[in-house]
Design the sequence.
């Protein structure tokens, strides 16, 4: 399953200027907020969470919220994500991958989620 999302960085930057950290708390966990140093990163995290939700086929809503997805970085700075164990079990997720990029005023993210062939679809 693949999900893609693209965000205009200026939109995120405007929300940050207007609402500050309150805006970040709307969609990021404390650990994620500590990783955000620039609007580009915040926009990339927004796009990543949307891409992950699209890959699962749920979208952001009652089944999967922004705070259910945790974005982290490995020792080389590459992003990866974690999902609640109940979702991992429900979708029989065996591996995941995440890529985030920003350029030309946009942030884009691609999420890939591999599940076993007998995964339940809701």
Sequence:
């Amino acid at each position: 399953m693949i999900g893609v999302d693209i965000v205009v960085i200026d939109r995120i930057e405007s929300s940050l200027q207007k609402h500050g950290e309150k805006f970040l708390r709307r969609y990021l966990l404390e650990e994620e907020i500590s990783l955000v140093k620039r609007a580009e990163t915040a926009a990339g995290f927004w796009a990543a969470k949307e891409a992950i939700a699209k890959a699962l086929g749920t979208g952001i809503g009652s089944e999967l919220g922004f705070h259910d997805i945790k974005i982290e970085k490995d020792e080389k700075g590459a992003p990866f994500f974690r999902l609640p164990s109940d979702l991992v079990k429900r979708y029989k997720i065996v591996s995941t991958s995440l890529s985030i990029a920003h350029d030309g005023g946009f942030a884009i993210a691609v999420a890939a989620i591999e599940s076993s062939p007998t995964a339940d679809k809701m």
In short: The two ends are 14 Å apart (CA to CA). The chain has one domain: 2-115.
